[in-house]
Amino acid sequence: MALDGRAGSRRAFIGSFTAAGGPGLVTAAVSRADGALTPVAAVKDVPDPSYLALGPTGRTLYAVSETAEGAVAAYRVDGDLPELAGPPVPVNGSGPTHLSLHDGHVLTANYGSGSVTAVPVRPDGTLAATPSGLLRHTGSGPHDRRQRGPHAHQVQPDPSGRWAVSVDLGTDSVRVCTLERGVPVLHREFALRPGSGPRHLAFHPDGEHAYVVNELTPTVTVCRWEAAGGSLKPLAEIPVLPGAPAGDAHPSGIAVSPDGRFVWTATRGEDVLSVLAVEGDGLRLTAVVPCGGHWPRALAEHDGFLYAANERSGDVSWFAVDGPTGLPRYDGSVRVAAASCVVFG
User: Fold this and answer.
1) Quick check: 50 and 341 in contact, CB under 8 A?
2) pLDDT grade for 139, boundaries at 50, 70 and 90
3) What is the pLDDT of residues 45-96, one digit of tens each?
4) With CB atoms 3.0 to 4.6 Å apart as the test, which of 33, 125, 162, 240 could cross-link to 60 if both were Cys?
């Protein structure tokens, strides 16, 4: 099956950990009928392309290289085989785990060094040779092993496009930033419950609520978001499991349904997906289902289907979502060793 990037093509891009045997960056066809993924090409130009983000034109894909040195790369994705568009750019931070596009820059969240890096994007979608700025996080948390220092895990723009929001597992906080001449500048830092270990944040379609999935406790923190002032206010913390976990339970991915009625989370160890119904300023856990693999690292919603990248079982599973209940029904999976994320173009 060939893909060429033309209008109407449906594609997915899957990231993986090459250090754990992953194929690198994978292009897959997406079935219009049942959401199934069929890999068609893979490249290993950069090590550990664990997180991906598609550019606004759909013809350039950006990938972190989650290594101790840390880098970001741009790919042309007009054809089946992604083509590296210039050399990877060092981010001056270690272990970048997430990236997004904001105000003409690629932003990376650097877990190992606890920082956020901005790299300018040229008009043709390629990356500048060096970063334009870096914001170092500071602080720690009560967890002796995981929170001895800052660990930026995610950075993304808010729905208004005015702010960049970074989530830090090590400091139990969310930072709201601006870009000033390409340099990330702190606007305000908002504290979550000590020891919660926030990992990723997803905004509600109303632009007034945000949901933070916590890695060190199996919960989601519901927040009110005010774009006018760049303000985040925690409102409630909701469990994503119906009882105490039997062993490891490390939440990872989070996604919000396009209609804003449901929030889904993934929990590693327990290897489940949780369904939470949105109720005003709160959430209510309604169901928990198996994730279709082992160690689900990331979640993505696309066209009525939910996808889980299962790192340790080495596959991506997909689920048809029931509209009235938000319940995911397992429909299939595809083998991708050390899978870490999936995005759609």
Assistant:
1) yes
2) very high
3) 999 999 999 999 999 999 999 999 999 999 999 998 999 999 999 999 999 9
4) 125
3-class SS of residue 20 = helix
Q: Residue 311 contacts by C-beta under 8 Å, 6 or more apart in sequence? A: 17, 20, 268, 294, 295, 296, 297, 338, 339, 340
Amino acid present at 271:
D
Sign of the C-alpha dihedral, residues 275, 308, 212, 158? negative
This prediction's pTM? 0.96
pLDDT in tens, 158-212: 999 999 999 999 999 999 999 999 999 999 999 999 999 999 999 999 999 999 9
Joined together, the tokens standing for residue 110 give: 């650097």
Query: Which two three-digit tokens encode residue 135?
Result: 């914001």
86-108 as b/e: b if 16+ CB within 10 A? bebbbbbbbbbbbbbbbbebbbb
Please, which pLDDT band fits residue 9 given cuts at 50, 70 and 90? low
In DSSP notation, 174-205 reads: EEEEEEETTEEEEEEEEE--TT--EEEEEE-T
Alpha-carbon gap, residue 51 to 15, rounded angstroms: 6
